[in-house]
Amino acid sequence: LRHLIRFSSTCFPQKPGDSVIRKLALIPGDGIGPEICSAATDVLSAIHAPIVFDTISNLNVNDDEVIKKIKSYPAALKGTIGHLIGEGAGSPNVLLRKKLDVYAHVCHAFSLKGIKTRHDNVNVIVIRENLEGEYSGLEHEVYPGVVESIKVITYAGSLKIAKYAFELAYLNNRKKVTAIHKANIMKKADGEFLKAVRQVAKEYPTIQYQEMIIDNASMQMTSNPWQFDVVVLPNLYGSIIGNIVSFLVGGPGITPGVNIGNDFALFEPGTRHIAKDIAGKGLANPTGILLSSAMMLRHLNLPHFAERLQDGLFQTISEGKVLTQDIGGSATTYEFTREIIKNIQK
């Protein structure tokens, strides 16, 4: 069937030189990051994708020379970087996104045949503002025992994420964009966000636009996810909704993601989980980073390599013979990856 589909479709008329080797950064990160990144590079090698990686381990996000080096590439593949919770410096993941100016986070959650979940046929794209909101990193103790954390929302930042969301919806033939907010309480901050999204919505009359409060949206996403198509939302709400919809389609190991700006794209699993509890045990599911790799291939104008990767992955999951524990199997990360490669090479 795969071969029949290939022959009944138009070819990819590349620009001269499109087969040139792309050099990208690879940031394995911590927790399960090195394991899933290894699975991704193994699969990319198996499909002979014209990509080579410059591996940057133990990344120091305060090293300007290393950041400059990463910026010299068009994209990077990344695992999550670990850090202390409730103490210490701010998140290195947030700081990296700021230094790379990747203002839009895309998390695409969709149902996969072979993964049993409560809801079938879920397909939601979450577009999250990546640099502002509660993640602005502006916190201080105003008095012993009293801490102030500043949420920053700008019209310019909101306008950029709104434009990206509607453009993505248009280019991917999506019919509806939902803006999620808390403007009933945070009238100025989230009100500014809505002002920007409403302005952009007027430019896309063929795309249905609606608004929903974050509390209700969380409930609606779990009870009736099919009403959502593309959602656009400020930073913290994006983390919440992205994790909810990822759970609906099988868990944190399933969904792909990318942080994207005007000049750089940082690809990583959609939920950004470090999973320290299973790190080093060979239990991690690399599906999310493999699908992120497929997104990366399309971003680099290598669509047929993306299709080959996805074909092998989807066949492996739908057959159900070799699956990781989180989706009902008993295979290790390595065994699951080998099965994907075997299916690709058939």
Q: Give the ordered list of helices and strands.
A: HEHEHEHEEEEHEHEHEHEEHHH
- Give the helix tally: 11
Q: From the structure provided, what is the oligomeric state, counting identical versus distinct chains?
A: single chain
**What is the overall silhouette?**
globular
Alpha-carbon distance between the two ends = 12 Å
Strand content: 15-25%
Largest sheet: 10 strands, mixed
Could you give the count of β-strands?
12
Q: What is the C-alpha radius of gyration, as a whole number of Å?
A: 20 Å
Low-confidence stretches: none
User: Largest beta sheet: what is the strand line-up?
Assistant: 2-1-3-12-11-4-5-10-8-9
Summing up helix and strand content along with how strands pair, one would put the structural category as alpha/beta
Mean pLDDT rating: 93
How helical, in percent, are the residues?
Answer: 25-40%
Describe this structure in words.
There is one protein chain. With 346 residues, the protein is an alpha/beta fold. It contains 11 helices and 12 strands. Helix 2 links the parallel strand 1 and strand 2. The longest helix is centred in the middle third of the chain and has 17 residues. The radius of gyration is 20 Å and the shape is globular. The mean pLDDT is 93.
